[in-house]
Specification:
3 helices, 5-stranded antiparallel beta sheet, 201 residues, Alpha-Beta Plaits, rod-shaped
Length: 201
């Protein structure tokens, strides 16, 4: 079929409509691809957010479970003076109670300022600071058993946690002989104790 210039007015409208249809189809294809990519991006973002939310929920559940397990232990240690501020008054009251329980001679003591403490052979805890208050105790003794009773009684008193760094026992000056009727100390013990407390960082 041949077209002449005289036919152009009749087919011009059809050509315009065809061009418009092609342009519209191209726009639709482009828009569909764009919307598809956008939807995929939003889906991926939603999936990542869901994964993060699930991970946070699992961590929160794990933290809650650990809190329920360790909170009673933490409270018990705090009540016993292992965690928190040093309890010097409780230490001194425990020493006096043990002395009276075993009918020991009066105890003399000195407490140094609290200082950081590094346990020997044990890695320090990451979440806690370990502090020590060094106490020097001078205890007159009738015999060596008095010292054992004193240290064991102090441990059972639950006034805090301490480590015995060492004790030195020597004969007391002017120790009585067998003919003495007055009760006097035969020995004198000097012990070094480190009272330890833990502080959360």
């Amino acid at each position: 079929m041949k077209f002449s210039r005289a036919d152009l007015p009749f087919i011009r409208t059809s050509l315009v409509l065809l061009a418009a249809s092609l342009l519209l189809s191209a726009l639709l294809l482009f828009g569909t691809a764009y919307l598809k990519d956008r939807a995929e991006q939003q889906y991926q973002a939603a999936q990542q957010a869901l994964v993060q939310a699930r991970a946070q929920l699992l961590q929160a559940n794990a933290d809650e479970a650990a809190w329920k397990i360790y909170l009673p232990r933490y409270q018990s240690l705090a009540e016993r003076g292992w965690i928190g501020k040093e309890r010097r008054l409780a230490w001194l009251e425990a020493i006096d109670a043990v002395r009276r329980q075993y009918r020991l001679f009066p105890v003399a003591y000195q407490i140094a300022a609290q200082a950081p403490y590094t346990p020997q052979g044990i890695p320090p805890p990451e979440q806690l600071d370990v502090l020590a208050s060094r106490m020097t105790v001078n205890l007159p003794l009738l015999h060596e058993g008095d010292l054992i009773d004193f240290l064991d009684g102090l441990k059972r008193a639950s006034a805090g946690f301490f480590m015995t760094q060492g004790c030195r026992i020597q004969r007391a000056a002017g120790a009585p002989g067998n003919d003495s009727s007055q009760l006097q100390a035969a020995l004198n013990a000097e012990c070094t104790l480190d009272w330890l407390t833990l502080h959360p960082k």
